[in-house]
UniProtKB/TrEMBL annotation:
The gene is PLCL1. It catalyses: a 1,2-diacyl-sn-glycero-3-phospho-(1D-myo-inositol-4,5-bisphosphate) + H2O = 1D-myo-inositol 1,4,5-trisphosphate + a 1,2-diacyl-sn-glycerol + H(+). It comes from the Eukaryota. Residues 1-66 are annotated as: Disordered. This is Phosphoinositide phospholipase C. GO terms for molecular function: phosphatidylinositol-4,5-bisphosphate phospholipase C activity. The keyword Lipid metabolism applies. One of its GO terms (biological process) is release of sequestered calcium ion into cytosol. Residues 707-836 form the C2 domain. Keywords: Cytoplasm, Hydrolase, Lipid degradation, Lipid metabolism, Phosphoprotein, Transducer. The keyword Hydrolase applies. It is found in: Cytoplasm. One of its GO terms (cellular component) is cytoplasm. It comes from Zonotrichia albicollis.
């Protein structure tokens, strides 16, 4: 702390010059002005550092002096990137290269206790003071030595008046959560993570500040909260810091290892002991810390005392970001009790049905000290272990099981597929290898390829026809396939048979397959009475052969069929006559009969396919052909894939076996996108990540808008998908742990400068990328503390990829990545286990993040916390129905216009009311309603600690009734709360009626589905006009179905909100004092809400 304190004595090091003290507080320091005299906003890609002190990644150290004449808008510097959706590719991943520094690194002093926070605050630092008039002033803030007041200078006030008494502070808020921040013209340029507000006085006035980094903001918030919570108790923090439960545990650990009982041990022993407690620490770092501690005490020895051991462990093993979180959720204690943990799990982590006993069980499993386990509290080390455990993994454990409907037709699923499965190297030179099949099948691949050729001794072989040096016996390959076919998944396996054999060896192929696969082989003839393929559920444990088939009307033993394999396509591409007809090959009847559900045919065009293709026939598309079709006929491609299977394979030009982007073809509904498993990289990351969902079974159900017979979806959608509610994804990248040095990077030694890229993959409207700032020379625990926001228009097709890179002049080098479907994200504070370039999980290498998801207009999944955006009625977007040009149908759809507007208004009104309550409670939009009630309950307390409002159930809705005089500032909050309950009530009570009207219009419209062509002909529509009418009809049906579902979900959310509010009120004691009758009535109300909820689920909605 000495460096920070010393910085205050020199005005140039961050404090304003002495003559500035006489300047009026409201007069801004000279700022950069443009030619017109207006203040010029400055934004920088570099974090604001070097004002009073620097605190990168939780460390304190000296810093360079700033220019006091150029820092009016330095608050903007704290935001290296604006937290907004970036759609302009030129704005994505802005270059920010590091600078070279030849100075030595300062010694690190981490924040690991309230004492450290208070020491920092007493030393003081520069903060930006934000005023309602959109002005920002630099002020130097300090905490009085007696811990009784917060002071700042320069100020026009007397020194005794430029202060705020700790006893007057009501709340401390982190983030831009006051009217001043919301209405400030520069708010967008101020980082959410660097903003804080001190609420004080009976009128809840706000002192709004911006720190130069998120770490500094966290120090002030944690320190002030600690002081306020203990304002009525004598504080002697410095002396008592060694009396904490953590210190007692560390002493016990030391004493157990101190065999001589002298209170001292060899440094080697101490190092081993800390390594045992925290295996991720490097030995060199532990030894350096001991030397630093001993140097500060002016001693040099190879022995370590008990106090030095405890100090070293605390500084090395305390992650500041986890400490700040613990203090925040523990109500400013340095440990969590069962109630704190319960609230954290419910409000932050989205865990439902949590009990006190479950929390105590977590404490018993993760708390390291015996005292903590017995008394039921979780200290910083146990809490860190819990956050790192699989229980706080980012991947929702529900999706590690089969969670999707597996009874849909096979064509309604994405299928995990491999290309040239027999290869483990590139397709030009790579030999065939049995391990290619082993790897693919163990990764739940459900479509594998076998290129079969004639072999010696009448035994067929599988080989790379570009490299015949190491062929595989066909018999051996299918024996391995038979053994592992259902090792990772019990759902059907498709064998894509590339037949290059003579008729004689084809018969050997058939004999081997029948003998080895036995009754697993699916050979039942498809039923012409059916319209769709069987389901994965019906085809469990079956092996399906895809290949050519002789015409069913020819009763011959063998015949000619077209050769449409990939090699034939390559030949045609390389020949001068690319348009020549494909060559013919001979096929024996026995092999033809093995092909049942996946008969290979040649694609001509969609019109021909929709008229004459049978559901059991499928086409294979080269990457180039599929890309052309996707661009020219995106809607037709989606409609085609509702009924038929499509296989897409990589371009013949990919001689290095690089991979195509599977997302481009998944967007069109293509089920089988074949990937080169042997080639790692971003495309394989997407593929692997995508098929982690649905229990990793190799089948993923497509979104309903891409399955329903009558629905509209275009793969090239640039905006909102009709009938689908967009979601907002908020990601806060907090910190990284134990990043390894990039492989092959040798120029910089062990030093890396990491940054994080967040990529969104999905439909074109959703694809974007943002990145954090670069953290210089920190691989152990770099602190990023940056928030990002993404709008996702089709959540079911979206994936998020976290990539950690080393910022380097020559080229940014890969450190690790993790790819996950949006649907599998868990909300709250999560650790992401990073994977290496080849896809392996790297031990102890993680990214610490916070996730929140919601619908764009609020709402969202009940367990994924609301993140709302208020939309005024005038700016409200209504999903419009289209005119088909068919009068009888358009008259039906016109009846739905009013109900659709009604449904949108009810949803938006409820959401806007929720946003108002959160704002007035001083909470961020991502807060839960339970957190709102907790905040309210702490305010609505009289001088004798009795609640000034009580829960009052009116017709099963939880109103709050004043018990006496309520201050005006709280009346405003209660009025907003009443409005939220009222809007929720309107939605709950009228949703059924509106929903029925929408559904009736949908059903009435669907009655004309079969007659569309006839109606169009009668109206004189043909060609493109008729197609447009059919497309508009599908659009309208999609909108009606989607809006009905959104209204149904909004009602269920409103019911859940009422239940959560009532539970929170009861747990906070907001029921009339001494009234058992009131409690009983409230509980009856809760039961009524639950019954209403259950009834609706079983009934119409």
């Amino acid at each position: 702390m000495a460096e920070a304190a010393g910085g205050r004595e020199q005005p140039a090091a961050g404090r304003a010059p002495p003559d500035a003290a006489h300047r009026a507080e409201e007069e801004p320091e000279p700022a950069s002005l443009d030619a017109g005299g207006r203040r010029r906003e400055r934004r920088s890609g570099v974090s604001a550092v070097g004002t009073a002190e620097r605190f990168p990644g939780g460390t304190l150290g000296p810093a360079a002096a700033p220019d006091p004449d150029a820092c009016l808008l330095e608050a903007a510097k704290a935001t290296p990137r604006r937290s907004s959706i970036i759609k302009d590719p030129s704005n994505q991943k802005c270059g920010r290269k590091k600078t070279v520094s030849f100075s030595s690194m300062p010694s690190e002093k981490k924040i690991s206790s309230a004492s450290d926070c208070i020491s920092f605050m007493q030393a003081g630092c520069e903060l930006k003071k934000v005023r309602p008039n959109s002005r920002i002033y630099n002020r130097f803030f300090t905490l009085d030595p007696d811990l009784q007041a917060l002071r700042w200078e320069p100020s026009k006030k007397d020194l005794d008046k430029a202060k705020l008494d700790i006893s007057a502070i009501k709340e401390i808020r982190l983030g831009k959560n006051t009217e001043t921040f919301r209405n400030n013209g520069l708010a967008d340029q101020i980082s959410e993570d660097c903003a804080l507000s001190v609420i004080h006085g009976e009128n809840y006035e706000s002192l709004d500040l911006v720190a130069n980094s998120a770490d500094v903001a966290n120090i002030w918030v944690s320190g002030l909260r600690y002081l306020v919570s203990r304002s009525k108790q004598p504080l002697d923090l410095m002396e008592n810091s060694h009396d904490t439960p953590r210190f007692a545990w560390l002493k016990a650990v030391f004493e157990a290892a101190d065999v001589d009982g002298n209170g001292i041990m060899l440094e080697d022993t101490a190092v081993e002991l800390i390594k045992k407690l925290n295996p991720t620490l490097k030995e060199s770092k532990i030894r350096l810390k001991f030397k630093e501690i001993q140097k500060s005490k002016e001693k040099l020895t190879t022995r370590v005392t008990k106090e030095e051991f405890c100090e070293a462990f605390s500084e090395l093993c305390t992650r500041p970001e986890v400490y700040f979180l613990l203090v925040q959720i523990s109500k400013n204690k340095e440990y969590l009790d069962a109630n704190d943990l319960m609230l954290f799990l419910e409000a932050e982590q989205g865990v439902t049905h949590i009990t006190e006993e479950m929390c105590l069980d977590i404490i018993r499993r993760y708390e390291l000290s015996e005292e903590g386990r017995l008394k039921g509290f979780l200290a910083i080390d146990g809490f860190t272990q819990y956050l790192l455990s699989s229980e706080c993994d980012i991947f929702d454990p529900e999706h590690k099981k089969i969670v999707q409907d597996m009874t849909q037709p096979l064509s309604h699923y994405y299928i995990n597929a491999s290309h040239n499965t027999y290869l483990i190297e590139d397709q030009l030179r790579g030999p065939a290898d049995i391990n290619g099949y082993v790897r693919a099948l163990k990764m739940s691949c459900r479509s594998i390829e076998l290129d079969v050729c004639d072999g010696p001794d009448n035994e067929p072989i599988i080989c790379n026809r570009n490299n015949m040096t190491s062929p595989l016996a066909f018999r051996n390959v299918i024996e391995v396939i038979n053994k592992l076919a259902f090792f990772a998944s019990e759902y059907p396996l498709i064998l894509c048979l590339g037949n290059h054999c003579s008729v004689q060896q084809q018969k050997v192929v058939v004999q081997h397959m029948k003998r080895i696969f036995g009754n697993k082989l699916y050979t039942e003839a498809p039923l012409s009475s059916e319209a769709y393929l069987p389901s994965p559920e019906k085809l469990k444990m079956k092996i399906i052969v895809k290949g050519k088939k002789l015409p069913c009307n020819q009763d011959v033993l063998e015949g000619e069929v077209t050769d449409e394999d990939e090699e034939a396509e390559i030949s045609r591409r390389l020949s001068e006559d690319f348009s020549r007809e494909p060559k013919l090959i001979w096929l024996c009847k026995e092999l033809s009969d093995l092909v049942s559900l996946c008969k290979s045919i040649q694609y001509k065009d969609f019109e021909t396919s929709m008229k004459s293709q049978n559901y059991w026939e499928m086409c294979s598309f080269s990457e180039a052909e599929a890309s052309r079709i996707a661009n020219e006929y995106p809607e037709d491609f989606v409609n085609y894939n509702k009924k038929f299977l499509s296989r897409v394979y990589p371009s013949a030009m990919r001689i290095d076996s690089s991979n195509l982007n599977p997302q481009d073809f998944w967007n069109c509904g293509c089920q089988i996108v074949a990937m080169n498993y042997q080639t790692p990289g971003p495309m394989m990351d997407l593929h692997t990540g995508w098929f982690l969902q649905n229990g990793g079974c190799g089948y993923v159900l497509r979104p309903s808008v891409m399955r329903d017979e009558v629905s509209y979806f275009s793969a090239n959608t640039k905006g909102i998908v009709p009938g689908v509610s967009p979601q907002v994804l908020h990601v806060k990248i907090i910190s990284g742990q134990n990043f390894p040095k990039p492989k092959g990077a040798c120029a910089k030694g062990d030093v890396i400068d990491p940054y994080v890229c967040i990529e969104i993959h999905g439909i074109p409207a959703d694809c974007t990328e943002q990145r954090t700032k670069t953290v210089q020379q920190n691989s152990d625990n770099p602190i990023f503390d940056e928030s990002f926001e993404f709008q996702i228009n089709l959540p079911e097709l979206a994936m998020i990829r976290f990539v950690v890179l080393d910022d380097d002049y020559i080229g940014d080098e890969f450190i690790g990545q993790y790819t996950i479907p949006l649907e599998c994200l868990q909300p709250g504070y999560r650790h992401i286990p990073l994977r290496s370039f080849v896809g392996d999980i790297m031990e102890h290498v993680t990214l610490f993040v916070h996730i929140a998801i919601t619908n764009r207009s609020g709402g969202g999944k009940a367990q994924k916390r609301s993140l709302s955006v208020r939309i005024g009625k005038k700016a409200r977007e209504y999903t419009m129905l289209r005119n088909t040009g068919l009068k009888v149908i358009d008259d039906i759809f016109k009846l739905a216009v009013h109900p659709l507007r009604e449904a949108t208004d009810m949803r938006e009104n409820m959401q806007n009311a929720m946003v108002s309550v959160k704002e007035l409670c001083g909470l961020p939009p991502i807060a839960s309603l339970k957190q709102c009630i907790l905040t309210l309950s702490s305010r609505l307390v009289s001088s004798d600690n009795a609640p000034s409002v009580a829960l009052c159930m009116k017709d099963t809705f939880p109103y709050l009734e004043p018990l006496g005089t309520v201050p005006d500032v709280q009346k405003k909050v209660l009025a907003a709360y009443d409005l939220m309950i009222q809007e929720s009530r309107v939605l709950i009570e009228t949703a059924d009626t509106t929903h029925d009207k929408i559904v009736q219009c949908q059903k009435a419209g669907m009655e004309f589905h079969e007659e569309l062509h006839n109606l169009g002909t009668k109206e004189g529509l043909k060609g493109r006009k008729l197609s447009k009418a059919i497309e508009s009809f599908a659009w309208n049906i999609t909108v009606l179905k989607g809006q009905g579902d959104l209204l149904k979900n909004a009602k269920n959310e409103a019911l859940e909100n009422m239940k959560q509010i009532q539970l929170a009120c009861l747990s906070c004691g907001l029921s009339k004092a001494g009234s058992g009758q009131a409690d009983a009535k409230a509980k009856r109300g809760l039961e009524a809400i639950q019954e209403k909820d259950t009834g609706d689920e079983n009934g119409r909605l």
